């Protein structure tokens, strides 16, 4: 048996007729940039999350950039965030001329450590960007309290957490602004790039809509320097279809994750966990293993696809060398970068395939014991 790490064709086949019908509408109407399909998706996604405004853009990276622009964060400001995330989280800080301040993460959740956040606050700190990594919500009670105590802006990077909940409340509703990615492999994925900024504040939404469209408030009238961050009509149409299935797909991910945990509980792997009071949406099923690279090779030799997230933490990336971090500064993130391995997990993956993956892992440890 071969089990690919990700197989988008399974989901596409399931929805083929619906997707092609919506694509045909975009082609027939020639509503290729923004337009009614994007507007309809914005309305439905805002309603799904329980927020007042959704501004669809061309990527999650663009959404993060706009979030800091509309919050007027810039040169001289510091923004605290995690080093154990995709680089786009920190790009947004750099794009506006602010300084990323990386702090360590919790070794069990992989999410930003609130105690480390509080220790890093200085008079220049303006905001915290939290990342709900792999679909597991951060400790929002602690982080919201810190922001309130110090007068900081909270921004949520929810690129991997579509549909996740904390204390019964949707992820994406805690910060003044939250950002989502609709990259094809996300829990809610487009057929190309896509993203969104969500907020309850009308002034933020109005300015974000202007900034995504060249800083204009009406055609050929540009009130500030803006960007071409508009979502394409086909992405809005596709996302509108897929949104209907998101909760179903997340439940399927959770069921498969529980099966992995049952099958791998007596192996040397450190398994991910579901925190009490949270709904984890299992964007990834990522384990820790002190023989990670060896296990990865063995699995791939035996037909199991895997992935590594993230092999170089952001504070040690060459692009951020000017910040002066060195190996050992953020030891938990650095250890995770050496030990984390993501196993196949996606809607359409079968129980038989999960059992095959788990059995292959068990054979690896039996062979090397």
Key terms for this structure?
alpha/beta, Aspartate Aminotransferase, domain 2, Aspartate Aminotransferase, domain 1, 2 domains, seven-stranded mixed beta sheet, globular
Structural description of this entry:
By secondary structure, the protein is α/β, with parallel strands linked by helices. The chain folds into two domains: 8-103 and 111-243, Aspartate Aminotransferase, domain 2; 246-368, Alpha-Beta Complex (Aspartate Aminotransferase, domain 1). Helix content is 41%, strand content 15%. It contains 13 helices and 14 strands. It has helices spanning 8-14, 16-29, 36-49, 60-70, 88-95, 114-120, 140-150, 202-212, 233-243, 246-264, 292-301, 331-339, 351-368; strands spanning 53-57, 78-81, 99-102, 125-131, 153-157, 165-166, 169-170, 177-181, 195-199, 216-218, 221-222, 278-279, 285-288, 340-343. A seven-stranded mixed beta sheet has the order 1-9-8-5-4-2-3, with helices on both faces. A three-stranded antiparallel beta sheet has the order 7-6-12, with no helix packed on it. β6 and β7 form a beta hairpin. α2 (16-29) packs antiparallel against α9. The mean pLDDT is 96.
Helical percent range?
40-55%
The number of distinct β-strands equals 14
CATH topology of the largest domain: Aspartate Aminotransferase, domain 2
CATH architecture heading of the largest domain:
3-Layer(aba) Sandwich
The radius of gyration computed from the alpha-carbon positions, rounded to a whole number of angstroms, is 21 Å
Largest sheet: 7 strands, mixed
CATH class category of the largest domain: Alpha Beta
Tally of alpha and pi helices: 13
Widest β-sheet, arrangement of strands: 1-9-8-5-4-2-3
Distance between the termini: 24 Å
